[in-house]
Design goal:
It is built from one helix and seven strands, in the order E-E-E-H-E-E-E-E. By secondary structure, the chain is mainly β.
C-alpha cells in the first residue's frame, strides 16, 4: 500500500496490491480498515471511495467499509487505486 500524488481537485489516492505467493488461485482481500488507515477525515466504515482495477482497467464497486477482494492467480498480483474525497476546507468564523 502506498500514497499517490493527490489529484488537482484535492482528492487523495492510495495504491493497494494483492499478492498471491501460493501455488493455487486464492481469494485475497484487503479490509477497509487497512487501506484507509492514517488518512485524516476518512472513516473506513462510512467513507465512499472509488476503486480502480489497474490490471483490468475497470472501476470496481466497493461499498463503504467493504474489503477489496480478488481471486488472484498463483504467483500473481492485482493492483488497485483507491480515490478518497478531498478534505473539506476548514471554515473560517469571525469572532
Amino acid at each position: 500500500m502506498g500514497d499517490l500524488t493527490p489529484l488537482a481537485d484535492g482528492s487523495r489516492r492510495r495504491a493497494v496490491a494483492l499478492f498471491n505467493k501460493g501455488e493455487d488461485l486464492d481469494a485475497i482481500f484487503a479490509p477497509a480498515s487497512l487501506y484507509s488507515r492514517e488518512l485524516p477525515g476518512v472513516d473506513p466504515a462510512t467513507t465512499a471511495v472509488k476503486v480502480r482495477d489497474v490490471v483490468r482497467r475497470t472501476d470496481v464497486a466497493v461499498a463503504p467499509g467493504a474489503p477489496i477482494a480478488s481471486n488472484v492467480p498463483r504467483h500473481g498480483v492485482d493492483l488497485y487505486v483507491i480515490t478518497y474525497p478531498a478534505l473539506a476546507a476548514p471554515s473560517v468564523t469571525e469572532l
